[in-house]
Amino acid sequence: MLISQADAVAGTLLARRRFLLGAAAVSGLLALPGCATMGGQMSYTEAVRHLLELATRNAFARLTAPDGFWTSAVARVNMPTLFGKRGGIIQGILTSDMFREKLQHQLNRFAEDGARKAAPLVADTVRTIGIANAMALLKGEPTAATTFLRNQMGPALVNAMIPELDRVMRVADDPIVNQAISALAGVNIGDAAHALALEADNAIWYEIGAAEADIRRNPESTNDPLLIAALKAL
């Protein structure tokens, strides 16, 4: 089938228009507020930072609310293995379902204090952390940015929460927790605080990951132009 010169010209104009529209879309992303002038990579870096800021803020808001850990679908703190030891008196206490539930609930309440201690540390890290693979993080799994942040922070949250949990557990002097600890030979509140901090650390990252996944599923809910544009562009 022969193509007339007019058709060829029209086709060229259409292709050029499509190219210009695509270029304009990319330029619009790079020119969004809050982006630096170093090109696309820096824009995506800011998008990852916005994603982490929102995810961590939402997660800690949930976890530090009354019974935040206990009612979370992903962050309820499990019974630390410290309280799962068997033998002697412990058999008669921790084999009771009612006692175990009361103990676990109280430990989840203490975890809220740990999260309050951890929240500023996470926020400071998000503001200052270097992000070299921003585009890959945005294109990654639903919790890719959370995984990256957790790997960068290492045991920082555990180390921050241990002394705080030790303090609040001593001040609370809770009879359920005290009874459980007294039944474990050679175990003190400091040991319990350490065990709880390890569980709370996992729970916090699970909640942040869930918050990140929620944002990725519905970026429009953030009302963040940069984040919306970056997630949709990728």
UniProtKB/TrEMBL annotation:
<dbReference type="InterPro" id="IPR006311">
    <property type="entry name" value="TAT_signal"/>
</dbReference>
<dbReference type="Pfam" id="PF13852">
    <property type="entry name" value="DUF4197"/>
</dbReference>
<dbReference type="InterPro" id="IPR025245">
    <property type="entry name" value="DUF4197"/>
</dbReference>
<protein>
    <submittedName>
        <fullName>DUF4197 domain-containing protein</fullName>
    </submittedName>
</protein>
